Amino acid sequence: MMDLLLIVVVVVGIVILRSYNQRLQRLESRVQELQNALAGHVPAVEASESAEPAEAVSQLPGSPIEPPTETAAGSSTESKEAAFAEASTQEQEEEFVALALTQKEESLESTIGARWAVWVGGIALALGGIFLVKYSIESGLLSPAMRLVLAAIFGLFLAAAGEIIRRRSEPVLVNTFQNAMIPGVLTAAGVVALFGSTYTAYGIYGFIGPAAAFVLLGLISVATLGLSLLHGQALAGLGLLASMVTPALIASTAPRPWTLFGYLVFTWLVTIAASRLRRWHLVPSFANALLSIWPLLYIFNSDAVDLTPVTLTVLAMIAGMIFIWPGHYDVAGTAGESAGLAGSEGPSPSSTASHWTAFLTRAPLGMTLTASIGAAAVALSLLIYSLSNGYPLTDASFPFAAIVAAVAAFGASRTYAAWAAILAALAAGFGMFIALMQPEIGAELNIAQIVPALSYLVAYDGLSLGAVFVLVGFFFLRRFGESERPFGTLWGIIMVATPLTIAVISYVTFGNWTRDWLHGLYGIGLGIVLLALAEWLDRRSFKEKIALPSNIFAAGSFAAFVLAVHTLTHDALPTILLPVLGTAFLLAGRARSWPALPWMMVAALIIVLGRIAWQPTIVDPGELGTTPVFNMLLAGYGIPAALAAWSAFEVRGSPDLRLRNTLQALTSFLVLLTVAMLVRHAMNGGVLNANIPTLGEQSIYTLLAIGASATLMALDVSASSHVFRYGGMALGVLSVILILTLHLFGLNPFITGESTGQIPFFNLLMLGYLLPALAYGGVALYGRHRRPLPLVMMLAVAGAVMAFAWATLSVRRFWQGEYIPFWNGVIQGELYSYSVVWLLIGIALLWLGARFDARSLRIASAALVFVTVVKVFLIDMANLEGFLRALSFIGLGAVLIGIGLFYQKVLSGKKATE
């Protein structure tokens, strides 16, 4: 079984080695061919093969190399070589050639004979060594120690042979088949032999102890990384894999984390240093991933965890990324494109989206992602381990904050590290949510809680981490703000969102909801700093304003002050102070032309509405009192409504139509809401949450809706606005719906039995039916030729229906008294009176329809007269007796004849006019 495992390891290692080396050797071959082509030394037989790469390079935009063409035939060889030398160094050659050149098709013969033969030969060498050892074991020819010594000598021999062949083949790099990598294959096979023999001496035969095995395997791995500088990136990957696997192969009953992570960091640093010399991207990405996996394995597979070496390991990885490799990676070209696009007038949405995509995918993307994701995963694992194992959370929160801050610094120090900034912000928010919400999480997981004093240390760590994001973001904007517009915008969002998120979570968990000075002062300080940053950025970019980050900071400062208001005040004060704060930002718009400033008033009013929905009584219901109008409702609703009205007046000349319309709509709604709540409070004896609705209260709301609709209509006539137009129409429709559902059915005293009052005329029926009828009539009359005809007809018909209901219910009250429920029955005088009143209303509607040429009123009159006719013939005939029955029919006949004469006169007048 052990033999089979070694065979599999060798085969997999060689295959991986081949995949890593293939691309690099292809690039080196193309570079050499290009050098020969530029120097004019291309043999005639290879002219066709070299022409394609040269042509491909020439088609690159801004390519520093021009291929030899007929027009450039007179150029001297010296000028071509000088141009090539000036274009780039050896490392830059590999990059632009990798982008420009396409892979040439090779014949089957060259692929099999010159390339695959080498790789298969390398595998055969490794397997041959394994089989030789196996044979010696089975035959008993050599002792175990001698076999291991011979295996080690065989490995050294292969490595030495690889180096000799590499040196001798160096003068003939023009060889088309140099990417067969004979030296690299031999060296890799030698490394596998050395590694296997050392581990066998420790793990199988026990010839050496764990410490010696660890040292020897580490030395082999480091030596392999050193040889990779000569043989390429693939060998570096093999050495890295061997180095990172070594600690797992050495069994230890008492692992020492400082020794373990010290060795891992050293190996990682060697890999990064080699990668910097050769400008490798793949191997350091692999190294970041492996180095990040080890802390996770240690944390979740150890009985006692020492967080310090884990933290220092991750910090070393981030520091190496910042200062060693990729370090100050050259993204000048992409940065210039960023500035150019940001400065262009009116970029299209598609170009902006594609530019953001290019900005988020800058090389070296692999290294950035592996380091950032690995560091964030380790940081979060510290908190999760602390919660799940009862480890002191305060000991984990600081290492977490340190790691996340380091990742944020990485994102702020390098223009290619956008994902580091994003992942740091996400990790900070999610991690602090886990840490700060630990009392609730711990209760669910049955974890013993730490004392509140220690919990506040976690809050301090979180708030400090939020401040770090603001600090490192400032350094980024100071250094790259004008040249990196998208990245600057991203950092602006992070600098606002991260500290605010942490502060809100901390306040909700540990804050004093009456008055919290810690979070209140933090909000004030953060708001001042963000405002100062907005002002600094606005003044700094005097040539071309960097508007978006400045507006983000302005909005963020408002949000920070909102947090401060909620943490330092309670009850009604936040509801009153929020629109005051919005007004201050609106006035600041006079001094600074930041579009976000006046919109903060809109945000303040929306937050006020949210607070009102959460607590409609503004203060505790027991503290509200019963005094009509002059109570906390007037301040809690009236002050925001008044400031909203002032702000709508203030921005009346603003070119921002959406801002004007939004403030006008909020003002109208708040004014209506203020009046409605004051009326409800007065009519319910100071109780706002009464469970029994009344017609009187609902009538006030309906009249308010009708009045608001008329007000908005008048405002629209004086200053055309979509908010006034459609808002008024919507309120008109809403009031009609209230009438149909509540006045006529749900709260009708004929159905509910509610008292209509003792005064004959000035009673509930007048408030609930007559006044709305008159209001609808007035709105319909005012809206003629100003609103769509269907809406006007609806309002007119609604007024007629309300007038009809008032008259009918008034008749019943005249005969029945204060209470008019349907279960009291109907007497004959009442039944006759309905016919008389309905006919009179029909005549009145007919006259009004003719007077104002309102067809809707004439239709309502005809409908009412028709209903009266049906009533007289079906109901009166069956229920009335004697004189009343005769009088009912006589009156109906007279009215119908009169209506007929009226229509004849009207129609005759129209024909004469025509």
Automatic annotation (TrEMBL):
Q: Which UniProt keywords apply?
A: Membrane, Transmembrane, Transmembrane helix
This protein's superkingdom?
Bacteria
Q: Where is the composition biased (Low complexity)?
A: 46-58
Species, as recorded: Rhizobium calliandrae
Transmembrane region positions?
A: 6-21, 116-133, 145-165, 177-196, 202-227, 234-252, 258-275, 282-301, 307-325, 365-385, 391-410, 417-437, 457-477, 489-511, 517-534, 546-566, 572-589, 596-614, 629-649, 661-679, 699-719, 726-747, 759-782, 789-811, 831-850, 857-877, 883-903
Task: Name it.
Answer: DUF2339 domain-containing protein
Residue ranges of the region described as Disordered: 46-86
**Transmembrane helix as UniProt keyword:** yes
Q: Does the keyword Membrane apply?
A: yes
